[in-house]
Design brief:
Structural class: alpha/beta
Bound molecules: guanosine-5'-triphosphate, magnesium ion
Pfam families: MMR_HSR1
Protein name: P-loop containing nucleoside triphosphate hydrolase protein
GO molecular function: GTP binding; hydrolase activity
CATH topology of the largest domain: Rossmann fold
InterPro entries: GTP-bd (IPR006073), P-loop_NTPase (IPR027417)
Number of strands: 6
Number of helices: 11
Keywords: Hydrolase
Strand order of the largest sheet: 2-3-1-4-5-6
């Protein structure tokens, strides 16, 4: 294990947003797998910032296989393939296996080979639970022994565990054949990830440093040998698992029927009804398990055709949505235009009103000035008259002029 290598995937190479790029033969492709919540999307997001959606709740987050692209060097793209975990809370294992198998077969058929696989595991998990072990089994079957040396086994969340506990869990994983042991014995490398860019980048750099590419069992079996999915190693593993589960449910169903007969003999209606409901539930589960097994009896070409049909339906749905959104945008645009015209009309009216107001203010100022001049004039005339002790014809005419001017100014004030 090498924790000292300097990261040479620098933050500047991280792409700012997810721009899906078609994968070419020259590109580097790395698949990221692991149970739900192990940190696959978070790991990928370190390099394609904000791209892969991370989950923060209890539900599985990534529900389909999707690749994210970042640039390794000018002209060379790196695609990180995000996958849903087999224990997804929203989709069946067969649907997930089909999706992963389809991606791997399609790329392989186009002679695009994987440069490596990264398998993530949460070091904070105190035990390798049934579902973790199951996930690992499918993963190993998917890859096949000859690809083990291209696998990076990465335990995540080292920032959330004390070093000693983490180390002892890691030792158990690597020393137990049915966990990581058999893969490590055949060349898989073990790494630790603490959630930081530096640790993710150091791991990716080391995965990239080995130049050889690999072909997985599922790729050879589906494309070269043209097997149906249920005839591949991974498919057979899943089929066997589904069969075991079905047999278990059938055994329980038989016991349930016996218990129900007994409850009816003892006239315990309540217990019989509860058992009847449980029985219906089990029968539905068994039918679903049969449907899942049937679902895997499909070859690469048919899987491809099914996916294309699904995509065409999606595109049709998008087109309908696009049209309705375009209609909505047009309506909003028209509304906006009519509002803008209204605002413009109000604006020009306001402009006219403000001009009229300014004219009136100017006239008022002039009238005030005139009034005060005439008042002064009147005062002067009155003073002169008092001084000369009489009223001349000239003075009377001046007085009339003053009074007349004042009246017109007052009239203007009232108008305003
Ligand atoms: N502290 C810490 N948190 C991490 C680390 N890796 C992932 N997480 C967090 O763990 C949660 C689950 O991570 P995801 O990347 O969504 O896990 P996933 O494997 O993609 O899960 P699915 O899409 O459901 O299969 C997210 O909240 C991550 O931010 C880590 O190394 N340290
Ligand atoms: Mg995810």
């Amino acid at each position: 294990m090498d924790h000292t290598a300097r990261p040479n995937i620098l933050p500047e190479t991280v792409t700012a947003a997810y721009i899906p790029q078609p994968i070419t033969r020259e590109d580097v492709v790395i698949a990221v797998l692991g149970v739900t919540g192990s940190g696959k999307s978070a790991f990928i997001s370190q390099f394609c910032s904000g791209a892969a959606q991370e989950g923060h709740g209890l539900k599985s987050c990534t529900s389909e296989v999707r690749h994210y692209t970042c640039m390794l060097s000018p002209g060379q793209n790196l695609h990180l393939v995000d996958t849903p975990g087999f224990d997804d809370t929203t989709r069946s294992d067969t649907d997930i296996l089909k999706d992963i198998a389809l991606f791997l077969s399609t790329t392989y058929q186009r002679k695009i080979y994987l440069s490596g696989l990264i398998y993530l595991h949460r070091i904070i998990d105190p035990r390798v639970t049934g579902s973790i072990a199951r996930n690992l089994r499918f993963f190993k079957k998917l890859c096949g022994d000859d690809s083990f040396q291209r696998i990076a086994l990465v335990s995540t969340m080292w920032d959330r565990v004390d070093a000693q506990t983490g180390a002892s869990r890691e030792a158990e994983l690597t020393s137990t054949g049915s966990f990581w042991g058999d893969m490590v014995a055949r060349g898989s490398k073990v790494y630790r990830h603490d959630g930081s860019f530096d640790s993710a980048s150091s791991i990716l750099t080391q995965v990239l440093s080995a130049s050889q590419r690999t072909v997985l069992h599922i790729q050879r079996q589906m494309v070269d040998q043209r097997r149906d999915l249920d005839q591949t190693d991974a498919g057979m593993e899943l089929e066997a698992e589904l069969l075991r589960e079905k047999q278990r449910m059938q055994r329980e169903l038989t016991e349930m029927k016996e218990e129900m007969e007994e409850a009816m003999r003892e006239r315990d209606g309540e217990a019989a009804e509860a058992l009847r409901k449980q029985q219906l539930d089990y029968e539905a589960k068994i039918r679903e398990s049969d449907r899942q097994r049937e679902n895997m009896r499909v070859g690469f070409e048919k899987m491809h055709a099914e996916k294309e049909k699904e995509m065409r339906k999606l595109v049709e749905k998008w087109n309908i949505e696009k049209k309705s959104i375009a209609r909505e945008i047009n309506e909003k645009q028209r509304l906006l235009e009519s509002l803008a015209a209204q605002v413009e009309r109000m604006g020009s009216q306001m402009q006219k009103d403000s001009e009229r107001l300014q004219t009136a203010q100017r006239e008022l100022e002039a009238a005030k000035k005139e009034l005060s001049e005439r008042r002064e004039e009147y005062t002067r005339v009155a003073r002169r008259e008092r001084e000369h002790g009489g009223t001349s014809g000239n003075a009377i005419s001046t007085l009339f002029t003053v009074i007349g001017g004042t009246a017109s100014s007052l009239a203007l004030l009232f108008l305003l």
